[in-house]
């Protein structure tokens, strides 16, 4: 085994920064990079920028210790900032999300701010080759639409009227109180496999559940299994479409405490957050994927990526940040009430 030591590269430092943002452990970072955990630990301790590890500053410091640093253009292909942008594109962020997040990460440091137009230009101006094709592939498809399920032209309401979306508590529509969810299934190849998607309306926090089969029994079991991991205070209501996969909705309510409501037939806009999330999921689970081959662990990874992605509708915060803020505020209010 070679004892030769190689310094951390810019790409490795960017990976460290992004994975720390995702709250990954040092051992997980080390395993991905093929480094010893102590190497990652020392790197972070050597660069104790607050409130987060800064890949750009860490790389700059390392260069200063070895050579005189060379001034880089803001988003040139050989710059550290470009590597940060590429890594964020790789994990599924859009140029607009990246541009806004850079301002949040480095407020007041305009030399590290770029517009989303600049990111697009940098990608399309990149020299021809495999890397350019890879960069373009990271961009989302603007014309992607979720296909309709196989069904008859006329679909009647199949659930009781007292469970209609129009009878939900008013607080659901206001999106001010967390704990109200929208749900759906995305279907795999030939409709033979499925994944349940649940989105919390206030924070847009996502939970994904693997189904053992595309049946009502499997859907109930998967939804109960994954939703039971959440705090009871976050299990108030869930709104689904008129699909037959929710035939065992009473069982879900009995086991989780969530009351299930149903949208009107052919009205996907009544569950807009869920429909939008299903579109985002197709970046990771393209049409025609055999979802029976996708593990729950992989679904959890995808959910983590979506929950740590800045969202414009949330003021460019992460869904997990918004959810935690609500929980902390709720806990504070309860303590004040008790006192």
Describe this protein's structure.
It holds the Pfam family HTH_38. With 339 residues, the chain is an alpha/beta fold. The chain folds into 3 domains: 8-65; 78-136, no CATH class; 161-319, Nucleotidyltransferase, domain 5 (2-Layer Sandwich), CATH 3.30.420.10. The chain has 14 helices and 5 strands. The chain has helices spanning 10-21, 26-33, 37-46, 55-66, 80-90, 95-105, 116-124, 130-138, 170-174, 216-227, 249-256, 272-281, 296-307, 319-338; strands at residues 180-187, 194-200, 206-210, 237-240, 259-262. The protein has a 5-stranded mixed sheet, sandwiched between helices. α1 packs antiparallel against α4 (55-66), α1 packs across α5 and α6 packs across α7. The longest helix is centred in the last third of the chain and has 20 residues, at 319-338. The chain is elongated and about 70 Å long. The N and C termini lie far apart (63 Å).
Topology:
Blueprint lengths: L9 H12 L4 H8 L3 H10 L8 H12 L13 H11 L4 H11 L10 H9 L5 H9 L31 H5 L5 E8 L6 E7 L5 E5 L5 H12 L9 E4 L8 H8 L2 E4 L9 H10 L14 H12 L11 H20 L1
Parallel strand pairs: 1-4, 4-5
Antiparallel strand pairs: 1-2, 2-3
Helix pairs in contact: 1-4, 1-5, 2-3, 6-7, 10-11
Keywords: DNA recombination, DNA-binding, Transposition
GO molecular function: DNA binding; transposase activity
GO biological process, one term: DNA integration
């Amino acid at each position: 085994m070679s004892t030769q030591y190689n310094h951390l590269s810019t790409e490795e430092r960017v990976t460290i920064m992004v994975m720390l943002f995702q709250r990954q452990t040092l051992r997980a970072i080390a395993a991905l990079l093929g480094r010893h955990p102590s190497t990652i630990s020392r790197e972070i301790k050597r660069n104790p920028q607050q409130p987060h590890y800064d890949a750009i500053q860490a790389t700059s410091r390392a260069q200063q210790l070895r050579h005189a640093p060379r001034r880089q253009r803001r988003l040139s292909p050989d710059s550290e900032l470009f590597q940060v942008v590429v890594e964020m594109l790789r994990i599924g962020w859009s140029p607009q999300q990246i541009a806004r997040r850079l301002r949040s990460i480095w407020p007041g440091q305009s030399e590290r701010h770029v517009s989303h137009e600049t990111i697009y230009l940098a990608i399309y101006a990149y020299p021809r080759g495999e890397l350019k094709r890879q960069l373009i592939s990271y961009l989302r498809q603007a014309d992607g639409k979720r296909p309709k399920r196989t069904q008859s032209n006329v679909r009647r309401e199949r659930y009781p009227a007292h469970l209609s979306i129009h009878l939900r508590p008013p607080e659901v529509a206001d999106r001010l109180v967390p704990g109200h969810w929208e749900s759906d299934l995305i279907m795999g190849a030939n409709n033979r496999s499925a994944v349940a998607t649940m989105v919390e309306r206030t924070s847009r926090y996502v939970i994904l559940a693997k189904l053992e089969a595309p049946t009502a029994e499997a859907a109930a079991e998967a939804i109960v299994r994954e939703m039971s991991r959440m705090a009871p205070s976050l299990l108030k209501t869930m709104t689904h479409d008129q699909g037959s996969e929710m035939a065992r909705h009473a069982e879900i309510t009995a086991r989780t405490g969530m009351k299930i409501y149903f949208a009107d037939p052919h009205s996907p806009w009544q569950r807009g957050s869920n429909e939008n999330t299903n579109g985002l999921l197709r970046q990771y689970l393209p049409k025609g994927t055999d979802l029976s081959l996708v593990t729950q662990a992989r679904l959890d990874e995808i959910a983590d990526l979506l929950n740590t992605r800045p969202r414009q509708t949330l003021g460019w915060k992460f869904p997990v940040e918004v959810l935690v803020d609500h929980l902390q505020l709720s806990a504070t209010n309860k303590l004040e009430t008790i006192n």
